[in-house]
Amino acid sequence: MTILFVSNDEAADVWMREIRAAASGIDLRQPAEIDEPESVVYAIVGRTRPGELRAYPNLRAILSMWAGVEHLLADETLPSHVPIVRMVEPSLTRGMVEYVCCHVLGSLLRVDRYETDRWDHPQRMAPRFAPDFPVGIMGMGVLGSACAKALLELGFPVNGWSRTGASIEGVTCFAGRDRLAAFLSVSRAVVLLLPNTPETRNILDRETFAGLATGAVVINAGRGELIDDDALLDALDAGRVERAVLDVFRTEPLPDDHPYWSHPSVTVTPHLASITDPRTAAPVLAENLARLERGEPVWPLVDRERGY
Amino acid sequence: MTILFVSNDEAADVWMREIRAAASGIDLRQPAEIDEPESVVYAIVGRTRPGELRAYPNLRAILSMWAGVEHLLADETLPSHVPIVRMVEPSLTRGMVEYVCCHVLGSLLRVDRYETDRWDHPQRMAPRFAPDFPVGIMGMGVLGSACAKALLELGFPVNGWSRTGASIEGVTCFAGRDRLAAFLSVSRAVVLLLPNTPETRNILDRETFAGLATGAVVINAGRGELIDDDALLDALDAGRVERAVLDVFRTEPLPDDHPYWSHPSVTVTPHLASITDPRTAAPVLAENLARLERGEPVWPLVDRERGY
Fold first, then answer.
1. Annotated catalytic, B124?
2. Cα–Cα distance, B204 to A164 (Å, whole number)
């Protein structure tokens, strides 16, 4: 039984070393090292090229090294009976909590205006505090829930929006498209942690930006496709949106001539909000491989209809 | 009985309105409105000019609107028998927690390098997480303790250093000058929240910078006098200190030609880390006035020998 390792981006040597250390005795190989494709029963994958997994007829499950799997779902050659397991691991969650708390606090304190405003900084003139700055989190899965709890600890009121609703103590939860306008109108900062699906694409567009609280802050650590970029730039220029902190983009790396780079109210971060750490992800992969072998349930399984 | 209000910096109208609302019926006046200086028994003060309080022979207590009182202690005309009460109020503590968490997280995530490093950001290449980034807090009073608790919640290991020691669950506490080197050597980020006293002046100097963990981060939200500025600039240029976030300075506003403004590894913030909010400070002043009138203890009383 061979386990395939496919990554066209990540440091394969580091990942394979950590996975072998966590799941001792496994036969883990990269595509070029495989003589008998029939022997491959599991695949651990980062970025794959379309059709790349078609060579392995006996594939029983795909384990993603990433939280986002839309590139896999877009691969029409992938047999629909093969389950896909998304990555949820402690460092990825921790990194997202650190990123979101850092930039929600930075937006509250207007760190982007330190340099230009110097001593007459608006925060100095009219300090604003967490209890007056409700944060709305869109996407209340593992990452969204962890961010909600950390922001509550820091004193922010927290709203949560998701497709089907969530229940977290202290968080005001909104469910479904019908409640999106109500959610946006009471959230001073909006944190996007949604997956990229047909339902979520351009979820922040001209219509939804118009319903934001005036002076809202937009933080996107989900996927670039969630935002209509032109609508965001217009909302920024109109002052409806005070600031945007963007970690993800339709095209990555963000092209050098993109207006986001030079916009005074936009902070661009290079898709680093949450990075899988091989040291903590490898034990999760090992555990899931063992569970699959024992026929036990694995989590979180991708629902292809839902898109994540 | 008249209560004097002296502030040469703050918005007197806002403060006086809030204080009158919190302590109804009091006779609160600014210096120019006072006909009989003998009637003044309490003074609520922000910045005072040296000798300014000498005109009031029956002063029984001074209530500071600020946490820092070194300007009062430097006024040799102030009668030594008049107690001084420092300001501790919820917004001041909250603001400091927000500032410190924001900049500790920003230092962990290297937000200062987003623009220059773009897609090859070091955090992307080698992510670092809170558990590997111990924060050392110098000054474990109300502000330091509150910051320590919030940083622990965010997953940072926390060390605390103070003159006499402190005891906070989960915080490794160091007491006294003898233990300063040990404290600094195990703290990746050092947060200064000490008062400005003869003992704390230049507490970070060439000798102590030499004992910092390599790549340490220095965050000063205490007083400018705590740091030997030339030694810090040299430590930054030598790479011993990775980054400094400075909110307080020997001269404020920081002069336009000061090297801190243009140094690529220094973030200057214009003394806004923690600002007293009249809405939450006025009830504290009212309560302390009532306690003084009833002969009850007030807190925190300034110890002139200690210097804070």
1. no
2. 53
